[in-house]
Amino acid sequence: MITLIAAAGENNELGKDNDLLWHLPDDFKRFKAITSGHYIIMGRKTFESFPKPLPNRTHIIITRNGDYKVPEGCYVVNSMESAIAACPDDETIYVIGGGEIYRQSIDIADCIELTRVHHSFDADAFFPEIDPGKWKLSASECHGKDEKHAYDFTFETYTKL
């Protein structure tokens, strides 16, 4: 099973200058809970946005640079097909970004775990449009802004029709 997991603003904004646009601790906790113990697929720029590899996850990094060096426990591939092939067949694989990697994988994904941040942002990376003819919103959990969260947000789960 292939699951896209992302946080996106009202206009599908993901980030700017290879950085997030918000700080939502509950979203980070959810991301960690969902992806821990699994294979995560990402583009090189997403990988480089982390200070170090995320613990308790196997990183598959897609890049055209065949000489790209990564730490132990991380693997480099040159395509989405190679990334999927590097993961076990019987396990859920999580695609964690960025925008181009989401675009390459949305048509082959089975599920989308999206945190919809209820605000508009200036961004240079975007999540692809979720086509209601292909996806059904199967779960939704709203969270209001508070002292730790500057924006309202909703955890949304989409399943392929």
UniProtKB/TrEMBL annotation:
Its EC number is 1.5.1.3. It comes from the Bacteria. Keywords: NADP, One-carbon metabolism, Oxidoreductase. Pfam families: DHFR_1 (PF00186). InterPro entries: DHFR, DHFR-like_dom_sf, DHFR_dom. GO terms for molecular function: dihydrofolate reductase activity; NADP+ binding. It is an enzyme of class 1 (oxidoreductase). GO terms for biological process: dihydrofolate metabolic process; folic acid metabolic process; one-carbon metabolic process; tetrahydrofolate biosynthetic process. Residues 1-160 form the DHFR domain. It catalyses: (6S)-5,6,7,8-tetrahydrofolate + NADP(+) = 7,8-dihydrofolate + NADPH + H(+). Pathway: Cofactor biosynthesis; tetrahydrofolate biosynthesis; 5,6,7,8-tetrahydrofolate from 7,8-dihydrofolate: step 1/1. One of its GO terms (cellular component) is cytosol. CDD domains: DHFR. Key enzyme in folate metabolism. Catalyzes an essential reaction for de novo glycine and purine synthesis, and for DNA precursor synthesis. Belongs to the dihydrofolate reductase family. PANTHER family: DIHYDROFOLATE REDUCTASE. This is Dihydrofolate reductase.
